[in-house]
Amino acid sequence: MQIPARLESAATFDYATTLKRGDVSIGTVEHVLAAAAGVGLDNCLIEIEGPEVPILDGSSLPFVRLFHAAGFERQDSLARPLALNRPVEVTREDRRVLYVPDGPGLTISYEIDFPHPIVGRQEMTFTLRPEEFASRIAPARTFGFAKDVAELRSRGLARGGSLQNAVVLDDTGIVSGPLRFRDEFVRHKVLDLIGDLALLGQPLHGRIHARKAGHALHIEFARALHAAVVSPSAGVAETEAVDEQASGI
């Protein structure tokens, strides 16, 4: 069965983004979708055996390399960007994602703030370009806390997760080895947002500012963007969706 990588397929998105069609679902799709969007691939068929995209090393880099190994084919029709000419914002308490038209291209500013000695407050601004994505964002691995592992596995997620394919934190430090970047945590959140926005099915031009968001808020934001295209008067929304800033998957 084929499951379209579109917003209408998004089923659950607390610790990771899951797509569903009928009784069939595929979990943790955001890393491979981020890789596709990051390299400029907007039309492909990904075949998967099992209920979850393999975690590999916890980043998008292996998928970027696989896409390049398979090769690309330029098609006759260009993908049309979303037609948005006004700000769109989704908020929940102190968490928010804001879009402001400003093209061409897409620039993302992301802030996180975790009460943890290794993470703390981090922020990054990134302009999406294939070569920059491959070197600065794609290698950033998923992260999480050791205390959350049981909860993830009870939901059928992170089945292949280990200290080798995630940045795992305990109460005081990292238990899974050295970081790839000093700010690897916020880089991975940028990666997650790119992957979740890929469900729009069209390129997005402008600027995005995200603060303490997660998959749930990403998806609500993407839906608000889509609604703003369908109904231009829709611009600002407040959501009560469950959000997990602590999730880096």
Going by CATH, the homologous superfamily would be lpxc deacetylase, domain 2
Largest sheet report: 6 strands, mixed
Could you say how many structural domains there are in total? 1
CATH architecture term = 2-Layer Sandwich
H/E series, N to C?
A: EEEHHEEEEHEHEHEHE
Low-confidence spans: 237-243
| Number of E-state strands | 11
For this structure, the CATH topology is lpxc deacetylase, domain 1
In round numbers, the mean pLDDT is 89
Briefly, what CATH class? Alpha Beta
How many DSSP helices? Answer: 6
Give the strand order, joined by hyphens, for the main sheet: 7-6-10-5-4-11
In helices, the fraction of residues equals 25-40%
Radius of gyration, CA atoms, in whole angstroms: 17 Å
Net shape: globular
Strand content: 15-25%
Kindly report the oligomeric state of this protein.
Answer: single chain
Molecular structure report:
By secondary structure, the protein is α/β, with parallel strands linked by helices. It has a single domain, classed as lpxc deacetylase, domain 2 (lpxc deacetylase, domain 1). 25% of the residues lie in helices and 21% in strands. The chain contains 6 helices and 11 strands. It has helices at residues 30-38, 61-70, 130-137, 149-154, 184-197, 215-230; strands at residues 10-12, 18-21, 24-26, 88-92, 95-100, 106-114, 120-127, 143-145, 167-169, 206-211, 236-238. The strands form 3 sheets. It has a 6-stranded mixed β-sheet with strand order 7-6-10-5-4-11, covered by helices on one side. The protein has a 3-stranded antiparallel β-sheet with strand order 1-2-3, with no helix packed on it. A hairpin with a 2-residue loop joins β2 and β3 (24-26). α1 crosses α2 (61-70). The longest helix has 16 residues, at 215-230. The chain starts with 9 loop residues before the first strand and ends in an 11-residue tail after the last strand. The model is unreliable at 237-243 (pLDDT under 50).
